[in-house]
Write a structure and sequence with these properties.
8-stranded antiparallel beta barrel, 1 helix, mainly beta, Porin, elongated, 187 residues, 63% strand
Length: 187
């Protein structure tokens, strides 16, 4: 008897979840991203480029939750590597709220504040900062220009904050551009 009650409860919750998922408004973004790494002491500025993807699910017309993933690749500044060319990598995994500001014609805008972690490493084992996972945050906005009913082009600037090296705060500018696919909702 207990098994049947549990099975019925799980089935009802699954059906309710599917109804919510069908009515939910979801944006899926993927594109090119570039960031300028600038630590506090300004000794190791470098530009890194890579990819960015995010998934945003809106519980209401304006308020949603975003999961943001990015990967950046570059070369360490020669001042830190005694003139050697050393590759560097960084991957970030963040989540947080996103708020739609407005939608007018083919143009829409939103803001977000996500926090999480960034994993950075130097593939060359000769350097002592070869493998670190640190705090990361992004405060930014999205500007979407609708191309078709379900596709828009997104321009996404933001301030990207990380802590690498000797626990130095890096206040970086990050810019992403690419298509965003819209599922559900009224659009």
């Amino acid at each position: 008897m207990t098994f049947h009650i549990r099975l019925l409860t799980i089935s009802c919750l699954t059906l309710a979840g599917l109804q919510v998922a069908q009515a939910a408004d979801v944006d899926v973004f993927g594109g090119y991203s570039v960031t300028r790494m600038r630590p506090e002491n300004e000794s190791s500025n470098t530009t890194m480029s890579g990819w960015n993807t995010s998934v945003s699910a809106y519980a209401t017309r304006r308020l949603g939750v975003t999961a943001d993933f990015a990967g950046f690749y570059g070369t360490a500044p020669r001042a830190l590597t005694n003139g050697d060319q050393v590759d560097i990598r960084q991957y970030s995994f963040m989540a947080g709220p996103q708020v739609r500001l407005f939608h007018a014609g083919r143009f829409s805008s939103s803001v977000r504040a996500v926090v999480g972690a960034a994993y950075g490493y130097v593939p060359d084992s000769a350097y002592n900062v070869a493998d670190q996972t640190r705090f990361a945050a992004l405060v930014g906005s999205n500007f979407d220009i609708q191309v078709s009913r379900r596709v828009a082009m997104r321009f996404s600037p933001g301030v990207y904050i990380t802590r690498f090296g000797d626990d130095q705060t890096q206040k970086n500018i990050r810019f992403s551009v690419g298509p965003v696919f819209h599922f559900g909702g009224e659009n």
